[in-house]
Structures are given as C-alpha cells and as structure tokens.
C-alpha cells in the first residue's frame, strides 16, 4: 500500500470518527477523557496526523456505542474480512499494531459475535 493510500484510509477513518463524535454530542475533550489519553493525542487521531492504535480504535467503538465497521468503512454491516485484510488494517494504525494484533482479533471476534446481544 502506498503512503498516499494509507493517509487516505486514515483520513477517511478520522473523518468518520469526527462525524460520529459530533452526532453523539461529544467534544474532543470528552472523548480524550473517556479514552484515557491526552486531548493532543485524540486531536491528532481525529485529524489523521497520527494513525489510531488498534487497541484504541476498539475502545472508541465501545465509547461511541457504534460498530467498528461504521468507523472503518462507514457501514454497519459485518464484513467478512480474512486474516490478511485484518493484518493490513492493523498495520495502518501504528507501528505497534502488529504487537496488539492477536488481542485485537479476539476483541473484534467478540464484538462481532455480540453485536446483537446487549449483555456481552
């Protein structure tokens, strides 16, 4: 994947994140606080200055109470993503993406399996 393609992906995710946050009536400061990160860090994610680490992306979906698909693709339907696509996505967010890859896949699988179950 070319650098410009990676930036475009990150920019799309950042824009969707901003749109969802605003629709929920939250400020960047609110999100930073809920995420346990500095406002500077959160602002850089939302402006695509830095990619969002996978572990934080999953937390963002929980905080905003939206699916990961909505943040990633602008859709709510579950995608059938194979291992290589997950790996490509994990690499987009940060150099530590691979480090958290296995943990992230387990969380994603749980979110997908619990999508309709409020108690999960």
Describe the structure.
This protein is an all-alpha fold and 120 residues long. It has a single domain (3-113), classed as Orthogonal Bundle (434 Repressor (Amino-terminal Domain)). 65% of the residues lie in helices and 0% in strands. It has helices at 3-23, 28-35, 39-46, 54-64, 68-73, 83-93, 101-113. Helix 2 packs across helix 3 (39-46). It is globular, with a radius of gyration of 14 Å. 20% of the residues are buried.
Give the DSSP E fraction (strand runs of 2 or more residues).
Answer: under 5%
Q: What is the H/E string? A: HHHHHHH
Question: Which structural category fits the helices and strands?
Answer: mainly alpha
Overall body shape: globular
User: Class in CATH?
Assistant: Mainly Alpha
List descriptors.
mainly alpha; 434 Repressor (Amino-terminal Domain); 7 helices
Q: Nutshell version of this structure?
A:
This protein is mainly alpha-helical and 120 residues long. The chain is built from 7 helices and no strands. The protein has a single domain (3-113), classed as lambda repressor-like DNA-binding domains (434 Repressor (Amino-terminal Domain)).
């Amino acid at each position: 994947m070319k650098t410009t393609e990676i930036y475009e992906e990150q920019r799309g995710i950042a824009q969707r994140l901003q749109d969802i946050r605003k629709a929920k009536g939250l400020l960047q400061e609110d999100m930073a606080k809920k995420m346990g990160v500095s406002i500077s860090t959160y602002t850089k994610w939302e402006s695509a200055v830095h990619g969002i680490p996978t572990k934080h992306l999953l937390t963002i979906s929980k905080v905003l109470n939206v699916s990961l698909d909505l943040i990633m693709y602008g859709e709510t339907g579950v995608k059938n993503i194979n291992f290589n696509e997950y790996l490509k996505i994990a690499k987009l967010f940060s150099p530590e993406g691979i480090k958290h890859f296995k943990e992230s896949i387990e969380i994603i699988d749980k979110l997908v399996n619990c999508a309709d179950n409020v108690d999960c």
